[in-house]
TrEMBL record:
Pfam family, any one: ECH_1
Domain of life: Eukaryota
Chain's gene name: LOC117569980
Record-level GO cellular component terms: mitochondrion
Gene Ontology terms describing biological process: fatty acid metabolic process
Name of the protein this chain belongs to: Enoyl-CoA hydratase domain-containing protein 3, mitochondrial
GO MF term set: hydro-lyase activity
Originating species: Drosophila albomicans (Fruit fly)
Keyword Mitochondrion found: yes
Cellular compartment(s): Mitochondrion
Its biological purpose: May play a role in fatty acid biosynthesis and insulin sensitivity.
Cross-referenced SUPFAM superfamilies: ClpP/crotonase (SSF52096)
Keyword Mitochondrion set for record: yes
Length: 230
């Protein structure tokens, strides 16, 4: 719980600061995240248990609400709620030594909430396999199944993250923020409604100062000078 509180506090700190362009979640050691502390859940305290599960839900919902991309930089094992956290980030880059699992059923706690996250990004047969067997999958298997954006050699992980963050930083924060917000909104809409709302969002995008600057710079064959403000 202390780890989740610290993570949540840092995630939502100064979201409107235009100097904030993206967030990278990383870890040291062989374990990226082992998920919840099962000893905390053992005590017969329903209120506290609910608080634990609500906290990870709040973190994940806020990741989607943040105006900048959130990147998982995984170099190790991500299990249970740790795998849930990975699956909830916008971009997931994993080393070839990483593994992913939802092993809760092995100790009598089915990974119900992690299943919500992985079931929305992975194929049904693969996510069901993870949830019902508890067996880990490799980073390459996770990539094929849609859980991971990119798999790289461990030695190339830092360089790849730098490459991705540079690409994000070269864009207008205002444009990325608008686009990220609508991207997640439209996922829950029927196709026809999504296109209708997308058309309105395109019109809104075209009114941004940074959009006008981007189009002008393209025509003038120069680099844009972003203001990063909506």
């Amino acid at each position: 719980m202390a780890m989740m509180n610290a993570l949540h506090k840092d995630l939502v700190k100064d979201p409107d600061d235009t100097e904030l362009r993206c967030i990278v979640l990383s870890a040291e050691g062989k374990i990226w995240s082992a998920g919840h502390n099962l000893k905390e859940l053992q005590a017969n305290d329903s209120a506290y248990r609910n608080e634990v599960f609500q906290k990870i839900t709040d973190i994940i919902l806020d990741i989607q609400k943040l105006p900048v991309p959130v990147i998982s930089k995984v170099n190790g094992m991500a299990a249970a709620a740790g795998c849930q956290l990975v699956a909830s980030c916008d971009i997931i880059v994993a080393s070839d030594k990483s593994t992913f699992s939802t092993p809760g059923a092995s100790v009598g706690v089915f990974c119900n909430t992690p299943g919500v996250a992985i079931g929305r990004v992975m194929s049904r047969p693969k996510s069901a396999y993870m949830l019902m067997t508890g067996l880990p999958i490799t980073s390459q298997e996770a990539y094929v199944a849609g859980l991971v954006t990119k798999v790289v050699a461990e030695k190339d992980l830092d360089h790849t993250i730098d490459e991705i963050t540079r690409a994000i930083k070269s864009k207008s924060r205002a444009v990325i923020s608008l686009g990220k917000q609508f991207y997640y909104e439209q996922l829950n809409l029927p196709l026809k409604d999504a296109y209708k709302c997308g058309q309105s969002k395109m019109m809104e995008n075209l009114e941004l100062d940074d959009c006008k600057e981007g189009l002008t710079s393209f025509i003038e064959k120069r680099h844009p000078v972003w203001k990063h403000k909506a």
